[in-house]
Amino acid sequence: MPSSSPALPPELELVIFRTAAKASLHTLYTLLFVARRTRLWLEPLLYATLRFGPEYKSPDLTTMDTSRQAFLADTVRHVIVSGYINIPPVEPLRICSNITHLALGFSTQDPVVREALLLLRHLRCLAFDPRVCQLMPSDAALPVFAGITRLELFYVVPGATDFCAALPRLTHLALNTLDEGVIIKILAACPQLLLLVILQDEENPMGVLPRAPEALTHDQRLVITAYVDWDEGALNRWNYWAVAEEFLAQKRSGAIPQTQFVADRDET
After folding, report:
1. Lowest-pLDDT choice from 6-15, 57-66, 153-162, 222-231
2. What is the pTM of this model?
3. Gap between the Cα atoms of 225 and 237, Å rounded
4. Domain range 47-253, CATH architecture
5. What is the tens place of the pLDDT at every residue in 122-173?
6. Distance (Å, rounded) from C-alpha 50 to C-alpha 119?
7. How does strand 101-104 pair with strand 78-81?
8. Which of 3, 113, 165, 206 is the least crowded, having the fewest Cβ atoms under 10 Å away?
9. DSSP conformation letters of 160-224
């Protein structure tokens, strides 16, 4: 009598299905309905990244029951909140409490958002405007920032240099500024940095700052490049972090001159 059990060990099936599901979103959706066990295995992949904003099909967190909210807390690792959403921006932070990557696309000061942000404990990558939570240099000692290794500041506030210098695990920093004085101070104050990325809009990536200022050409941690999407630094995909790291690797190998600091995304 034929057995109804899987022909392969469940552990191997799990690896195969997860690998296949990562090929495309269409494949993931298809595999979700193969069997109950595949849905249990693969649904967390579907919700690993959540985006909130009018341009996204975001889940309505305010109407979810507690079991579904608990599922999101266990599952979601990347959260993107754009500048305009139809729910309080604090809700994704409150419910998706175990996220490791976060991008906030608004700049309005909000004490409730600050309170929710400071409760997070697993952040590794953060992209935001520090004015949202009135960031102070002393905040670097708070638990929420203890594990941050990658940080993008959409706006450089007074005290940003001291804040970055005090982050215990920060190795990658991205700034949206062309202020030579700020860049020099950051590099001098943050010897722990492996990479400082100066970002410019892809529409005019090299027109404003076509080369590194003369005072910075001694520091090989500096890379000038473009961003494509405002939130890309908080997503696991080919992004400006990957562009800059590949650029530095090519400089170390001698493929790119030490005098070159601008990484063209079309060529990297």
Report:
1. 6-15
2. 0.84
3. 16
4. Alpha-Beta Horseshoe (3.80)
5. 999 999 999 999 999 999 999 999 999 999 999 999 999 999 999 999 999 9
6. 19
7. parallel
8. 3
9. HHHHHHH-TT--EEEE----HHHHHHHHHH-TT-SEEEEEEETTSTTTS--S--GGGTT-TTEEE
Q: Which two tokens stand for residue 116?
A: 């929710």
Q: Which of 241, 243, 186, 245 minimizes the C-alpha distance to 219?
A: 186
Task: Work out the end-to-end distance of the chain between its first and last CA atoms, rounded to an integer number of angstroms.
Answer: 58
CA distance 80 to 100: 11
Contact 268, 247 (CB under 8 A): yes
Virtual torsion, Cα 51, 53, 55, 56, nearest 10 deg: 30
Q: What is the DSSP letter of 89?
A: T
Give the SS3 label for residue 125.
strand
What's the CA gap between 41 and 16, in Å, rounded?
A: 11
